[in-house]
Amino acid sequence: MADYAVGAVVRVKDDWPETRGPVHLRTPHYLRGMEGRVVRRFGAFANPEDLAFARPAAQRTLYHIAFDQPSVWQEGRAGDELLVELYEHWLEPA
Amino acid sequence: MNILETDGERLLVAVRDLLAAKGLVSNAEIAERIAITDAANPGQGARMVAKAWTDPAYRALMLEDGTKAAEQLGIPMRGAPPLGVLENTQAIHHLVVCTLCSCYPRAVLGYPPFWFKSAAYRARAVRDPRGTLT
User: Fold this and answer.
1) Cα–Cα distance for residue pair A59/A89, rounded to 1 Å
2) Is A73 on the interface with B (CB under 8 A)?
3) CB count, 10 Å around CB of A36?
4) Which residues in chain A have Cβ-Cβ distances shorter than 8 Å to B87?
5) pTM value?
6) Which of A65, B81, B87, B125 has the highest count of CB atoms within 10 angstroms of its CB?
7) What is the set of domains in chain B, with CATH numbers?
8) Residues of A in contact with B122 (CB under 8 A)
């Protein structure tokens, strides 16, 4: 899995695991397919998508990703940002 | 019997005794956890912020490692997830929302206000933060 530096532009995967069966997801649906910018790395945490089902959970890097608010919602003031915690396996290079 | 209609105090005693009988958690551990939970309130967060205003080293620690900063003021953080701290400035105001569930720094601030978990706040704060605040 790619390792993203602060400042890198990334895209949230346009993936919908909830359509394929029971899941626990921490990736908001309104960000799927959206481009954002890496603001900080929090380090690695056990993947909650597996923890929720008591499965062995791999360590995944958690990032703070900033998104342009008006681009996501088609409303809001220019310059406003959404800052969201996302795991590495949901990100791809943009 | 409907669990929702059960007397809360009796239910607590029954569950606590069951956990103790199974050797999962002792009554003392539960009492300690209840005391910590009861002590958590927004005043603890205010105390951290006020110290950061007057103590540059503490401010730096708080932005670097919120958990350590809380512990330094005697707030027990054992078992809590890492505490992140974001700073408001003249130009930036942060609005915190958990759109997926109800994540909240309970170890520091106690139980969230009822509206923090409401669907209306979670949906609106992320779409229209300025409108939500005014």
Assistant:
1) 11
2) yes
3) 26
4) none
5) 0.86
6) A65
7) 1-39 (no CATH), 40-133 (3.90.330.10)
8) none
